[in-house]
Amino acid sequence: MAEQAKTQRWEMVAAVDLDDKKQVPEIAFDADGYATAIDATSAKAVAAPDDVLRAAVIDNFSTGCDLTGKKVFATTKTSKRQIKVHDETIHEFGSRGTTEFSSAVTEFPDSYALKTADDRALVVLAHTHTQRDAVAHSGLQIVPDKQDRAWLGTTPSPSFTYTFTCSDVATVPTTPGKSQLIGYTCRRTDAEGLSISA
Asked: Looking at the predicted structure, is the pLDDT value of residue 10 above 90?
């Protein structure tokens, strides 16, 4: 939830599917019963600020957790799901094509964090990544899937680039240590193809 400056009303700004609700840590409350917000952008407040978490999540998709992902995250069911997306998708076309995941500009860069009872932070953030599918040889084309036709129509193309906007939630230590990714939700928000005449 976030308070809108003009209306001074609280609105939901992020909702994330959790793999296991038991993973959600207990939120710390003060004597008046209020939760304590933590600055998720500050390396002084959390071991992995939101930009580090975002880079690690994107690494799970783009390399299968070979670089930043394995340095930042402990192994969880959620991180394994992201790595599985990478591992299965990059081999989808076999020798006839390639798939690459890349970072994209995050349209909603704000992050939200609350102090937990075990002195960690529960952090919710967003990230955006792209998936580029391309044929490996001239003369081949990719036919848009039924679910992509709203963006792409039915015209085949040698490559398509899909944009995904995602929400992620992690528990992050406030002192040096690995974070745990405990949920994420991704939705396709754009897709475009390469014109044959291009």
From this structure: no
Residue 56 DSSP class: H
CA neighbor of 188 nearest in space, from 144, 135, 158, 136: 144
Q: SS3 of 70, please? A: helix
How much is the pTM? Answer: 0.86
Distance CA 35, CA 116 (A): 9
Report the helix count and the strand count for the chain, using DSSP H and E: 4, 7
Going by DSSP bridges, is the β-strand pair 97-103/120-135 parallel, antiparallel, or unpaired?
A: antiparallel
- End-to-end Cα separation, the chain, in angstroms: 45
The DSSP string of 111-135 is: -EEEEBTTSEEEEEEEEEEEEEEEE
Burial of 197 (0-12, 13-18, 19+ CB in 10 A): exposed
A 10 A CB-CB count for 95 gives 8
d(CA 185, CA 123): 14
Using the Cα atoms of residue 27, residue 31, residue 32 and residue 36 in order, give the sign of their dihedral: negative
* pLDDT tens by residue, 31-86: 999 999 999 999 999 999 999 999 999 999 999 999 999 999 999 999 999 999 99
* Sequence-ordered list of residues with C-beta below 8 angstroms from that of 101, at least 6 positions apart, any chain: 58, 61, 62, 86, 89, 129, 130, 131, 132
Q: Can you tell me the distance from the alpha carbon of 43 to that of 59, in angstroms, rounded to the nearest whole number?
A: 20
